[in-house]
Design a protein that fits this description.
The structure is a single chain. It is built from eight helices and 14 strands. With 296 residues, it is an alpha/beta fold. It starts with 10 loop residues before the first strand and ends with a helix.
Amino acid sequence: RSVDRYPWCMACKVACAQFAPVKAEVETNLDTIADGVVQAMGETADLVLLPEACTSGYFLEGGVLESSLTSGKLLSGIWRRVEGKIDRAVDVVLGFYENFEGTLYNSSAYIELTPEGSRLVGVYRKFFLPTYGVFDEERFVTRGRDLGIFDTRLGKIAILICEDVWHSILPTLCAVQGAQLILIPAASPARGFSGESIDNHDRYRRLFVAVAEEHGVYCASAQLCGFEGGKGFIGGSKIVDPTGRVVVEAPVAEPHMIIGEIDTDLVAITRAQSPLLSDLQSAWSDVRRLVNETDI
């Protein structure tokens, strides 16, 4: 089945590429990212998802400014590396520390690449900044204030970054506003080793399954792996379909690329069989009233 340019796609392939960036070495990491994009395109992927902060590594703290990029520099850096290697359209979503007019954000860019050139579809800035335990984001970057929902050649796609998906309100808002696929670039250090598996890796799986089942959406994640400052990132990137089935999952900790099919026919079927999203949309005016009446 073919994918038309801007109507909803019937089916497309998403590649989720987890890797360990070299800390603060932006040019080196852009080389790795470009190689991954070309590899994924060769394996017939239509969209390539890469992790949070993958241009620089995550734990930069006071080094965020030196490794930050404007969206324009990111776009030109990617295009310079893939020009002449792209023989069809492929979309790329990747995390980076963004410098926007002197303000720093933990962001993800949605980029469309074609043989003729590159286009920045949009940038999403992380809404919930963890500042507890090993995390200290709010000291070094500013939180975003808008949803990341983009009209793309593959349909309406949302981006949430790492902790954003731990707050159920954001996936809900994305689904209500029409997203059928939610992309989650993440950088999650391993936490909790009470059993045979890693606690936060298991939590991510439960979160994605719950979001997918409640809203009838696909969830696709790309996680950092490797070590920074003695902290190991979990990897375990995955794609979950609207029924809550894990379509494909990467191994823990090691660099890996997974590819899975996104079929929006399944979105429609799932939502018809379990109309939780339409129930929410029909009650939306009362939900808004209740929110306005809630004093926090």
